[in-house]
């Protein structure tokens, strides 16, 4: 029996994914991508040494690779203590951030680093939207006297 490591889908979002999502994901990650990140070529389920800036050591080929997976020569000096390791797990990412759009051209096998970089703008927008929504709800439903007190406390704290 093989043990699969998959990226968890939040329960509230499961209905957005097709019933055969595991098979679709496996086809992209292992069939098309060959168990390597399609951005940086890091191998699935391996510990990888890296410098923290995207450059990483490919133990299979015995060379350094760039954040785009290209072979590179590392000419600048670095301390061995500065080399970190990370365990790579591939996920099947939606390039347009729409879990309902499951055409192969819209999917990519990405490691955690590349997935976070790809989703960074979406995460920033989601944080802004959540904060905006909470402020709007508070403005709609909070007693104006409480708002005034809260703002006055914040103003005095900011001065102090």
Could you please describe the fold and organization of this structure?
The protein is of the alpha+beta class. It contains three helices and seven strands; from the N terminus they run αβββββββαα. It has helices at residues 21-32, 112-141, 144-159, and strands spanning 47-50, 56-58, 63-65, 71-72, 84-87, 91-94, 107-110. It has a three-stranded antiparallel β-sheet, with no helix packed on it. A two-stranded antiparallel ribbon has the order 1-5. The longest helix is centred in the C-terminal third of the chain and has 30 residues, at 112-141. The N and C termini lie far apart (62 Å). The model has no long low-confidence stretch (mean pLDDT 87).
Summarize the helix and strand pattern as letters.
HEEEEEEEHH
Radius of gyration: 22 Å
Whole-number average pLDDT?
A: 87
- Residue ranges: pLDDT <50 for 5 or more in a row? none
- Our count of helices gives 3
**What does the main sheet amount to?**
3 strands, antiparallel
What structural class results from the helix and strand content?
Answer: alpha+beta
Strand content is: 15-25%
The helical percent reads 25-40%
The overall strand count is 7
Shape: flat
Major sheet strand order: 2-3-4
Distance N to C terminus: 62 Å
